[in-house]
Amino acid sequence: MADISIREVRKSYGNDEVVHGVNLEIESGEFVVILGPSGCGKSTLLRMIAGLEDISSGEIAIADKVVNALEPRERGCAMVFQNYALYPHMSVADNIGYALKVAGMPKAERAEKVRQVASSVGLEEFLDRRPGALSGGQRQRVAMARAIIREPQVFLFDEPLSNLDAKLRVQMRHEIRRIHNRVRATSVFVTHDQHEGMTLADRMVIMNKGTIDQVGTPEQVYNAPATAYVAGFIGSPAMNFLGGQLSARHGAVMLENGAMLPVDARLAQAMDGQLVQIGVRPEALTLCQPGTGSLTATFEFYEELGSEGLHHLKIEDVPFSVLSETKMRLEEGTEIGVIIPQEALHIFGAETGRRIDTAGTARIGVMA
Ligand SMILES: Nc1ncnc2c1ncn2[C@@H]1O[C@H](COP(=O)(O)OP(=O)(O)O)[C@@H](O)[C@H]1O
Ligand SMILES: [Mg+2]
User: Fold this and answer.
1) CA-proximal residue: ligand 1, atom 26 (nearest)
2) Per the structure, how many domains does the chain have?
3) Could you tell me if residue 368 is inside a domain?
4) Do strands 4-13 and 77-80 pair parallel, antiparallel, or not at all (unpaired)?
5) How far is the CA of 78 from the centre of ligand 1 (A)?
6) How far apart are the first and last CA of the chain?
7) Residues 140 and 23 occupy one common structural domain
């Protein structure tokens, strides 16, 4: 187990900088998920930790030792990819034990080690099979076992579950978390899937075009997103956004359609006139009679989600959704009220996109 320090790390391909001075501290034994959409630089960052990609500037240290100049094999990292790259002509046992064989470990000792590791990932019945005779999830476990057996200081995962079907993906992420709880190796897991990130992470790192927008626990990132970008990326169905302006006189945000949403008086005072973006999560809202709520919307369409209904509305021309157990299938164009509790408001600077807290200061979030 080792801690990882990433300091002012940049990466350019030619003239194109794709990672812009990233700082991140990962603690020993921690499971950190790097989350962001395709192309934001997740794999590049992970590959720089592994040593598979040069760093253009900055420093990476593993267990307090700067590794910039070290070869991948000298860094004590094991990488688990989306493509498992198992040897098809070898048994599961030989696949798992390959690194130990190369390292010259005697056969009996090796077999015992393989058996132990295989049992920790639930593969003991499959040791004699070839990878071709395994399911996708079982192959993924072989890939995990092959990494675990090397007893790496650090596990690096690059979207290892992306090739699996939805059900298996959920099952495997639980399994990865269980394995982590047992092995407690420092782990960095890259994904574009927020659900995967939320379930696996001790802490999440939300990336946005080569920079980090926020680092925090899944709860922190969901409850207090540091930027409008994070707010829109985390949470499903996605957060609603409305434009407005803080007004000291009203102690509220005045929306573009004239509706008033009360906010903390000190905030309205401190930032009177500030243009803002209001974010509210669909699950924090309640439908009501038109004219009785925080604002009035028109009904667009209803989406059945089983235990709940997703109500698609429009406020002026802005789409707006309300998730609730009370299901209302109304005619398109019907007026309906929406109650927005004050504590459900997330307020972001219209220009900066940064969260504005009650002290009236823009908060960048927990940055290293
Ligand atoms: N070998 C490369 N040469 C040039 N550009 C690259 C290379 N690898 C990645 N990129 C670019 O760097 C950016 C980040 O890529 P990547 O780290 O793979 O993103 P992610 O893993 O988040 O999808 C993208 O714009 C991608 O096109
Ligand atoms: Mg990638």
Assistant:
1) 39
2) 2
3) no
4) unpaired
5) 21
6) 21
7) yes
